[in-house]
């Protein structure tokens, strides 16, 4: 994974609350066996008409959204299904961060493993940013992961929380898998004193 | 460490191989890993890329459920898969399981079924275990006092290779339900009422422990219905402390300990309860006596109300984003604010899914529909949770009851809960569904879902519109024993 550096971007405004992963990518797109190419299916049911043409009034189809790398979402973004296809689709489309007041647990975990930053802000900051974005389509934010800083279009900067281990991995371009594999001794030691609880071949 | 611990803390402590530090999360050992066709292919690819093997194939089990058709078998006894993409995905699971030595319940085989039905059914789900699966409804297994939660595909790879997960410790929430349920009110109504109360995001960051006399009096299958939908309130896991009901359910199942091992296991499982004096980070209470059958009116499981309630009015909601959300939901659902749902015409009734497809669900639905007919113009589907549930239901005569009423009897799978296997609503259709999600398009693009209990589903199927299950149960019924 590439290390994440500070970046500046315009913001796509999608303030709907409780956007579930079925909206981010509907289940019918989950019959794939790889993780690439899902960007076209992002928000499919909101984004396309029945004949496949783009819905002109959906925010991703508006000219000002082109090239934006940050999504502004409502509370509880990414709830529902555990499908990692949701961050794969967001990243595949070109998003690098989502701003919300809070994220569903599994979605947040999945995002951090795919270089997509879940940026949590307070309800006050959220409300003010939403108001600004509504009136200023060119407004930009800057996201600095090392400083955990979100620079707002009004010139202010707020700090956002992030799991320190995930931050370390993202900043250094190392993955969590390698860290776990490095714990072989501890895993073996645990297994030596804790016999397996089940034997699945016995019930098959 | 305090001497008083919650049930969650006890299970967590038993599985931590590296405790959390200020810089790194805890590393948690996983006792059982459940695998299905949709969220695993990319994880196996990752293993191949890194040249890794599956660490403990004997603590891993795979089934086919999400993208599998539930259409009747062909003359050769096989279930045809007409969708080429689904067929390729299923074939990939066969190859992956063969290559890495993982036991698999293949489509058409006698033990295939929904991943959260087969674990308990085979006796693999046991108290005090850690259980994961690339599926958010893994919370189901918490009914046994196991710490069970859904994970993403990257984490599926982690567990396949190391039998471990990197985890931050969640907070704990007690949801206490005391009192006694009225006739016609079920476990499904309890959990729909809980989610309506805490909201779809109310449990985010928490593991819920369900306590109280109303929970204790539930059967294991009812407890699974409750824990299953913990994720619909945002909680990754739900827990119920194991008791005699739990032990009796597990005893004698193929994966269960036997002989002296059984006695030792039960003695250990009796310790799995929250100590007196242990505290939770949050607490919620409900009174079962006050509960009525529940139904959802909107596009997330938190948008629920008593069956005889009226659809809320966006004009009464102060917050702008919340108001817009409710307006959008009612627009999608084609419902008017302030109106009752009772009497709203329906097109489809779906009985199935990892929430309500077990034998007791099918028995109660069959008992309610026996001697009645599905209303003209309504399609009713009954989809058993596993091949073994199907076989048992057929042996008990339930299939005949459903078919005599005009319902379809299907093969086992996720079916219309996920609409990626051929079973789905047409745009604009209304369904009363015993599944767990009413999100836009969840049961088919443009489809509109009312979540409810199997009894409410039957009452609605018979009348052809959203109906109150208490009207069915209040009628005098002849004695019936399956």
Write a structural description:
The complex is a heterodimer of chains A (204) and B (482). Chain A is α/β, with parallel strands linked by helices. Chain A has a single domain (6-193), classed as Aconitase, domain 4. Chain A has helices spanning 21-24, 44-47, 85-93, 105-112, 123-135, 164-172, 176-181, 184-193, 200-203, and strands at 7-14, 70-73, 97-100, 117-120, 140-144, 149-151, 157-159. Chain A has a seven-stranded mixed β-sheet. In chain A, β2, α3 and β3 (97-100) form a beta-alpha-beta unit. In chain A, 43% of the residues are buried. In chain B, 32% of the residues lie in helices and 16% in strands. In chain B, the strands form five sheets. A five-stranded parallel β-sheet of chain B has the order 5-4-3-6-7, sandwiched between helices. In chain B, strands 17-16-15-18-19 form a five-stranded parallel β-sheet, covered by helices on one side. Chain B has a four-stranded parallel β-sheet with strand order 11-10-9-12. In chain B, a hairpin with a 7-residue loop joins β13 (294-296) and β14. The model of chain B has no long low-confidence stretch (mean pLDDT 96).
User: What is the count of DSSP helices of chain B, taking H or I runs of 4+ residues?
Assistant: 16
CATH topology of chain A, what is it called? Aconitase, domain 4
SSE sequence of chain A, one letter per element: EHHEHEHEHEEEHHHH
Give the proportion of residues in helices of chain A: 25-40%
Strand content of chain B: 15-25%
